[in-house]
Amino acid sequence: MAELKPILLVEDNPKDLELTLEAFEEAQLANDIVVARDGAEALAYLMPEGGESPTDFKRPAVIILDIKLPKIDGIEVLRRIKSNDATRQIPVVMLTSSKEEEDLVRSYHLGVNAFVVKPVGFRDFFDAIHGLGSFWAILNEPPPGSHRRGGSKA
Predict the structure, then answer these.
(1) Does the predicted TM-score (pTM) go above 0.70?
(2) pLDDT digits (tens, 9 = 90+) for 24-39
(3) What pLDDT is attached to residue 136?
(4) Distance of CA 92 to CAs 121, 140, 154, Å?
(5) Which residue from 56, 88, 104, 143 has the fewest beta carbons nearer than 10 Å?
(6) If you ran DSSP here, which 8-state letter would residue 152 be given?
């Protein structure tokens, strides 16, 4: 069986990070979760050598990206991902507390695959993350040539 691709989670809020990781665990996703706590850390993972991914790079099945991040915000991270030939086909989901229409419009203009406003309630947040992980890591079919495999633990 092909090696599962990781999920790149870019989140700076410790409580949201903890809840997201718990929801992924409950969904029994077999994918590794790579955590970046700011935009610069996410870009360093994706493009560690000034824009080009190394040959041993573990391409994520999906990037779950917050907008409001330290160092480099999520909109700029998205712009760089989608403007780079090595990363542009990786699905990106904005998972954010922002309800600003400008953030929504800019995200879709830059090529985001989905824009999800973080639910306020604990159970709603948990259910949303559970669904996102299952869809993007298991159900979504990647473009030809990306060789992304998802999966769940048996």
Answers:
(1) yes
(2) 888 888 889 999 999 9
(3) 64
(4) 24, 12, 26
(5) 56
(6) B
The amino acid present at 23, given as its one-letter code, is A
Instruction: For residue range 57-106, list pLDDT tens digits in order.
Output: 688 989 999 999 999 999 999 999 999 988 999 999 999 888 899 999 99
CB 73 within 8 Å of CB 102? no
* H-state helical runs in 27-154: 39-46, 74-82, 101-110, 122-134
Tokens 């979504």 locate to: 140
Measuring CA to CA, which residue among 42, 144, 23 is closest to residue 92? 42
Give every CB contact of residue 137 below 8 A, 6+ residues apart in sequence.
Answer: 4, 7, 29, 31, 61, 62, 150, 151, 152
- Phi first, then psi, for residue 114 (nearest 5°) are -160, 150
CA atoms of 102 and 83, how far apart (whole Å): 20
In the DSSP assignment, the letter for residue 136 is: I
Cβ pair 131, 139 in contact under 8 A: no
pLDDT above 60 (res 110): yes
Q: The domain 7-137 belongs to what CATH superfamily? A: Response regulator (3.40.50.2300)
Angle, vertex CA 58, rays to CA 127 and CA 109, nearest 5:
60
pLDDT at position 143: 64
